[in-house]
Write a structure and sequence with these properties.
Blueprint lengths: L1 E5 L18 H8 L20 E6 L2 E2 L2 E5 L17 E6 H7 L4 H6 L4 E3 L12 E3 L2 E2 L4 E3 L2 E2 L11 E8 L3 H4 L6 E7 L8 E9 L3 E11 L4 E13 L7 E14 L4 E15 L6 E2 L4 E2 L12 E18 L2 E25 L11 E29 L2 E25 L5 E5 L2 E5 L19 E27 L3 E20 L2 E22 L3 E12 L20 H6 L3 E14 L4 E16 L6 H4 L3 E17 L4 E16 L16 E9 L5 E10 L2 E2 L9 E2 L4 E2 L2 E2 L2 E13 L2 E8 L7 E4 L6 E3 L4 E9 L1
Length: 773
Amino acid sequence: MSCVKRPNSIRVNASREPAGLPRMMALAIGVATAGAGHAENSVSQAEEDTSNVIEIVEVFGEKNAPYKARRSGDLRRTADLAASPNTMTILTQSQILDSGKTDLKEILSSQAGITLGTGENGNAFGDRYIIRGHEARSDVFVDGVRDPGMTTRESFATEQIEITKGPSSTFAGRGSSGGAVNSITKQASRDYRFAIGEVGIGTDDAKRTTFDLNQPLSDTVAIRTNFLYADEDVPDRAPAARERKGGLFSVLWKTSEQLSFVVDYYHLQADDQPDLGSYFDRAIRKPVSDIPVYLQESDFLETEIDAFTVKTNYEFTDSLRLQNTVRYGRTDNGYVTTGARGTTRDSTDPVAPGAETFTLSTHQGWQKIDYFVTQTNVLWETDIGRTHNQFVFGVEYSNEDVENGVYNIDYLGATNCVVSGRGGVQRDYCGLDGSGKVVSNINGLMERRVNRGDADSNFDVQTISAYVMDTIEIGEAWTTFIGARYDQFHYNNNVISRGVTSEYDYSDGFWNGHVGIVRALGKNGNLYFTYSTATNINGGESDVGGSCGYGGLCGTPDQVERSDPERVENLELGLKWEFLDNRLLATAAVFRTTKDDVMESVGDAYSTLGTLNTGKNRVEGLELSLTGAITEKLSAQLAVAVMESKVLDAFDETNEGRVLSNFADDSVYLQLQYQPNDKVAFGGAYTYKSEMYGGQPDTAAGYDSAIGDYSIVVPSYEAVDLFVHYYPTDNVNLRLNVSNVTDEEYWQAAYRSGSFMYLGDARNVRASVTWEF
């Protein structure tokens, strides 16, 4: 447990721009390291500085290295991060606060090796992540327990965010083809007493208030409360807006030296008026720039989350303990959003035949999630012969019940143009008038009347899992990690399509494993090799019913029952090295992830093929990172991913050899913090993502054979953020964040048709004051 004081007593060393990185990185580094030339060249042991203020409790952090976590908050990961045989990025509270990012989606989308995806028919449920080229929207965990469904997630109650790269089904169960995300929540502690409040305002009518209190009530009881209220317009896209209201209440009760309980209740309500961004112009092969805000006044994206958790810890001895986690949660999601598509007015249009314009479309759905999970782990540390072993024995039961449906919508607004589309010539809603100007009432054209309709999918999965892991120390130089897991599940889903109900009901089980070998290189370095697997079941994504291409059910009920699960294997060779008294961690890893038996929609060809498992793809690459305190005054989090993807086998053989959709070959994230004295700390962040191509998840990007190129292009982009802290008194911190300093217009993901492309936030400024009571 580390107590990081802001600003940190860390000294700085000047940093040069790494060769070969894109041009704008020089700006990020130059600003963040201004004045660094007078710094010392090494980190010395920092003395306790009582003049520093506003402590941030980094429970799993490294002292005097605010961006570096020592280990995972998942107790099943018994090794420190520097000694674990896998690639894992841990984002600390300090790093997240400095970044100025708050929603999990924006935090993760900036990280190297991670991109965003879009859903079928504009599915706008919550957050969709792609890790190392593979969908991870259902591979999100909270304190090691799966957080099912598509939701909006916030960081106000988060201790740290852990991003595991590569298959990890030994820990996660089904899914996790490219990796998984685990958020560690803030919990009550008897070791600290603090109350910290923050109030912020900014451009785009931004307002944000948080409060974090930890209070021991006795030697055995402590409480912790976190509250959030935030409201803002989407930068330069009003009336698009975001609102967040949330709270976390946690109680620790230690009944004896051996037994303790932690009970917490989490609530979040997110109310957005969402903006789906721009669309792809196939004529110029670029997204349309400076598109007007076309959302409709009735548009909404709503999430309400309630989760109740009880953790029981019992220590039999110093080397044997048990932990049980029980969680019940409920989430309600709903959205009605507006998309745009470029077209021309039909020759029969009475206003401007043949004029270029764009039409508006509706994307909508609702989802209700109820889930229950109980996970029990027994941790046993013992010597067997000449080896030291850290065993984890675990069992888990989960029940995920998800209803999906659509809204009944009436359009009361008058149409204003005639266009030709898939359904032939029809009247429609156009965003541009006959002269090419934005129509005066663009946000009120459709005048929708919305009512929730019936469910069209009832998804239920019950799973029983058992796993065993062992970290084995063999002498001083060798460590081996071995893990195996078996999941037995029962799947039921009633899918209603065009008034016809299809019941999918089947049971199956699968094994996954993980083997890692670590060779210590002196006291500071570790060389490792790892092999890990993952498994995806047919229909495993809860939000898409029978949409095969987006992780939903592939095939008829009989075909689904006979289908094999998708299999994922990962080989990885890596090196980790700690410098400067363990305050700085450098990592490098090369990997190859192969996904086989990929389920595809084969239609009538099933009778000939006899299988749905016709696809295979591969992602391989190199990941580099540098995290921690470079000098006493300079802290950094650097992540670089250089990858390539390839479809190896496909039902449609023309897809073979093509790249995966929404996949960035190259990506970089760099965040620096420089603290010249005890009153000031400042820095910046740089994000780079290379060009991507739109399409369905986990398969080839859309391709236009007529032009011999990919159909939908998401251009590469660079973005720079800046921040500064000032401490006027012992218990007050003033912080200023400027995001997207150069006001870059950039796009983060594209729907397969190009009918909408998510825009990144324009330049925005946020100022906040934090005080400790």
